[in-house]
Amino acid sequence: MLSTSFALINNIIPSKDTLDTIEQRLPLKLRANIINIMPKILKPSFSLLPFSAQKSALIPALSSVFREALEDGDFEFLQDKWLKISVTDLGLNWWLSYDHDRLIMASPDAAIQEDVSFSANGDDLILIAGRKQDPDTLFFQRRLKIEGDTELGLEVKNLIDAIDIDQLPSTVHNLVEFSANFIQNTQDCLKSAQQ
């Protein structure tokens, strides 16, 4: 199923070179508007996306990214613990745990009480995934919030620091890399224009 999803994505997403060309040709103001309006466009769609669809996309993607860590048992600290991830500007909340050597996801209807939570807007999470920002910097800038069990939060942060997006299929890798570059380049240009 995951390979079918990635094949579908591969047919929809333009090549990396095409994406880079698009970014270079878009005026800065338009790029900034795209970044500002995208959460407003996506939020209603995500609110209609059933839990089963979110789970069937998120768990395989995370399992792919963290394949080595899962094989090494690096997620054992999450056994019988729950991590809540919130994408604040999209209104998305996911509860993740670890059981029987695999990641699991609880439905929002399960009313799980998380042990630790991470929350940030989508742009900042993309910047983390694309290695344009590190979680520590965003945490100290109060753009990444970590609440709950401090020790558990540190373990999760260390796993985030170890994310290897090269583990993703090339299409998804290219999309994450393009999105992170697009956001970072636009933010940098906006800062330069204000000086």
Question: Could you give a quick summary of the protein structure above?
Answer:
The protein has 195 residues and is an alpha+beta fold. The chain is built from 9 helices and 5 strands.
Give an overview of the whole structure.
With about 200 residues, this protein is of the alpha+beta class. A five-stranded mixed beta sheet has the order 3-2-1-4-5. It is globular and about 50 Å long.
Q: Give the total of beta strands.
A: 5
What string, H for helix and E for strand, traces the elements in order?
Answer: HHHHHEEEEHHEHH
Computed CA radius of gyration, to the nearest angstrom: 17 Å
Q: Please tell me the overall pLDDT.
A: 86
| Helical residues, percent | 55-70%
- Which structural category fits the helices and strands? alpha+beta
Question: How many helix segments?
Answer: 9
List unreliable stretches of 5+ residues. 1-10
Measured between the Cα atoms of the first and last residue, the distance is 49 Å
Strand fraction: 5-15%
Q: Rough shape?
A: globular
Strand order of the largest sheet: 3-2-1-4-5
- Main sheet summary: 5 strands, mixed
Write the layout of secondary structure elements.
Layout: H1 2-12, H2 16-25, H3 28-48, H4 51-65, H5 67-71, E1 83-87, E2 92-99, E3 102-106, E4 116-120, H6 122-129, H7 135-140, E5 145-148, H8 150-161, H9 170-194
Parallel strand pairs: 1-4
Antiparallel strand pairs: 1-2, 2-3, 4-5
